[in-house]
Design goal:
It contains 26 helices and 17 strands. With 650 residues, the protein is α/β, with parallel strands linked by helices. The strands form four sheets. It has a seven-stranded mixed beta sheet with strand order 7-3-2-1-15-16-17. Strands 8-9-12-14-13 form a five-stranded mixed beta sheet. Helix 13 crosses helix 14, helix 13 packs antiparallel against helix 21 and helix 14 runs antiparallel to helix 17.
């Protein structure tokens, strides 16, 4: 061990070759520990709503407005503050509009630049100069650094400060400078972003959300069940592929697959039109109000039915292959009486709403026809070879996990599976039993194997576990007794549609249960929280997102338009800054055009969940623990220099 420590100090001495260099770094790190902690921003269940997501990202769930209020107080009217906030969110678009009506544009530039510089100064104040410098836009880095560090009220520097602003306007760079400041403020307002699952499905733009996240300065992702479904599809898992296409068809978003990801759906479309040309496919009407033509809608409906039947077949094959999943009860095609058009479930016979199954062989209902096999084979190849999709999934793998512990908060998307008596449920995965934290880690390990394992058998197990995570009752990301897809399509009686939730959801207000889970994941319950989404909070019915005496925060409030009738709002987000935890409830986002033209921000209601008596510093965070470790190592290096066991590299 001593030998290893000596080698480590020798390596460290290459970075800090003298007593002076090591001492300077210790002073620097110690100073950083005493800065206020950066603002964390939590979002979940975005479900492809890229415009609303983009706006919430720009306004930092109200953080920009709060900063403007801090800076200007009563010096600006409410209207002026709103105009300034809109300009920070959409600097290019708003400036273009202002130019059309403003009589003295140079005066507007000057006033605007001074105001934005003030907000920028305040936003940068909690960071080291080095960190701010890294965030600065390349074209204006030197000028912005001067403006936000110079004291403009100083007699020596006041004229210098004013002349910089005047010169920016004189040489015609004001618009670009305003845009650079707006983007920098957005960057500085939020130090780190957490996405607590479900970027994909329902909404039209998950690919655009992924592109934004890939360019974001600091982010982590806790995978949701819909994200893992797309990961499985990208890995070539047929059950996941069929589900992905079915959901896109159901919400009228097939162009996401075909246009945005460039995956050819023509073979499926041709097949669907041929097989179901005289079938109205009434059970497969689209959800919501997709903006597509009547003919396209008719095609979508037929494709919706075609891919649903394909899904039930390939899932039946997986269930037969993976006996350890114990899902035989979900193989429903064999329970259908194809002559009578009925199905028998738990001893009761139900009449099917649609009994037209031209591609199903009653003797072997899960067997694909030749044409179906060719379609699935081509889709599998297309998903595996889609460069853009693979790039997005690699990002999910690199930045994502099934759970994360960060600054004394436990983040996961769904639930921790519990037994009926509210103990951690033991779950068998490929013959080995896991529960709690170990279950999460085993499942995540298999997800990664599905992409990277060299052993083909292990890789196939990993692929199939992604499908398992999507719909198995013991999956932490699903947590219901069944996914009643077949029943919802084909059976009128709603008793068959019931999906009973895991006991975890029955005791969300039980502080003891919350403490049990926090301890399981290595957290001291006193000041820790569980932050998750997955199940929309029905605010319209008076449900609160704050559970278990503030220990659990469920922040899925209906980002997805499909949920907003149930929830009554358009999502919760969470801010954790140096003063405490702030929950933000959002009204629906209308459009970017409305936001720019009429300065209509998302109306947000803030709820202070927890306010600290003393402001939290970097030293109180996980990053602070790492910095303290680095300081300790540097102090050991100083001791080595001073004791003579290491020689300075002068």
């Amino acid at each position: 061990m001593k030998c290893l420590e000596a080698r480590y100090l020798d390596r460290l001495s290459q970075l800090f070759p003298t007593i002076g260099a090591a001492s300077t770094e210790i002073i620097n790190l110690q100073a950083i520990l005493n800065l206020p902690k950066g603002t964390e921003h939590f979002l979940t269940d975005i479900h492809g709503e890229n415009e609303a997501f983009s706006h919430v990202l720009k306004n930092g769930s109200g953080s920009v407005k709060r900063k403007i209020n801090d800076v200007f107080g009563n010096r600006l009217t409410l209207a002026d503050k709103q105009a300034l906030a809109t300009l920070i969110y959409y600097p290019r678009e708003k400036t273009k509009l202002i130019k059309q009506t403003e009589v003295n544009i140079e005066d507007w530039y000057r006033i605007t630049l001074y105001r934005m510089i003030e907000v920028c100064k305040a936003s940068a104040s909690k960071y080291t100069r080095s960190k701010v410098r890294k965030a600065l836009p390349k074209d204006f880095s030197y000028i912005i650094e001067e403006l936000i560090t110079v004291k403009s009220d100083s007699a020596d520097k006041g004229n210098y400060y004013n002349e910089i602003v005047n010169e920016i306007i004189r040489i015609g760079r004001a618009e670009e400078f305003i845009a650079a400041l707006g983007e920098l403020i957005q960057r500085l307002i939020v130090d780190h972003l957490h996405i607590v699952g479900d970027i994909y499905d329902r909404g039209p733009g998950p690919d655009k959300i992924m592109d934004q996240l890939m360019g974001y300065h600091s982010v982590d992702i806790q995978w949701g069940n819909h994200d893992v479904l797309w990961m499985g599809a990208a890995a070539g898992q047929r059950g996941c592929i069929a589900n992905v296409i079915r959901i896109c068809a159901r919400y009228g978003n097939l162009d996401l697959i075909e246009d945005n990801y460039g995956i050819n759906l023509l073979p499926l479309a041709t097949y669907a039109l041929n097989i179901y040309k005289d079938d109205p496919c009434e059970c497969f009407a689209l959800k919501g109000s997709p903006c597509i033509s009547e003919k396209e809608q008719e095609l979508n409906i037929k494709m919706h039915k075609a891919v649903s039947i394909l899904q039930f077949k390939v899932e039946g094959q997986i269930i037969k292959k993976r006996k350890s999943f114990a899902m035989e009860g979900r193989n429903l095609l064999e329970k259908v009486d194809y002559e009578k058009g009925t199905i028998t479930l738990e001893g009761k016979e139900y009449v099917l709403l649609d009994a037209n199954f031209p591609t199903i062989d009653p003797k072997d209902p899960y067997k694909l026809t030749e044409e179906e096999e060719e379609i699935m084979s081509r889709l599998e190849t297309a998903f595996l070879n889609c460069e853009k999709l693979q790039s997005h999934m690699r990002f999910l793998l690199n930045k994502g996990d099934l759970y994360k512990v960060y600054n004394n908060n436990l983040l996961f998307h769904g639930c921790v599976p519990l037994t009926k008596d509210y103990q951690l449920k033991e779950v068998s995965i490929y013959g080995k039993k896991y529960k709690g934290k170990a279950l999460y880690e085993a499942l995540e390990s298999y997800v990664r194997k599905g992409f990277f394992a060299l052993n083909e058998e292990e890789k196939e197990k990993g692929k199939d576990i992604m499908w398992y995570i999507w719909l198995h009752e013991n999956s932490p990301l699903f947590g219901k007794t069944k996914m009643a897809t077949f029943e919802r399509y084909f059976i009128k009686e709603k008793e068959t549609h019931t999906e009973i939730k895991n006991p975890y959801y029955n005791c969300l207000n039980d502080e003891k249960m919350a403490n049990l889970i926090l301890e399981e994941f290595g957290l001291e319950p006193k000041d820790a929280h569980i932050i998750n989404g997955h199940v929309p909070v029905k605010t319209i019915e008076g449900e609160s997102p704050v559970k278990a005496n503030g220990k659990i925060l469920v922040i899925d409030g209906g980002f997805s338009k499909a949920y907003q009738k149930e929830t009554g709002i358009a999502g919760y987000t969470l801010i954790y800054n140096s003063y405490g935890l702030i929950l933000v409830a959002h009204d629906p986002f209308l459009s970017k055009e409305e936001a720019v033209l009429h300065e209509n921000d998302i109306h947000s209601e803030t709820i202070v969940v927890k306010r600290t008596t003393t402001r939290k510093l970097v030293g109180d965070t996980d990053a602070g623990k790492e910095l303290k470790g680095q300081i300790k190592d540097l102090e050991n290096l100083l001791d080595a220099y001073r004791s003579g066991s290491l020689v300075e590299r002068i």
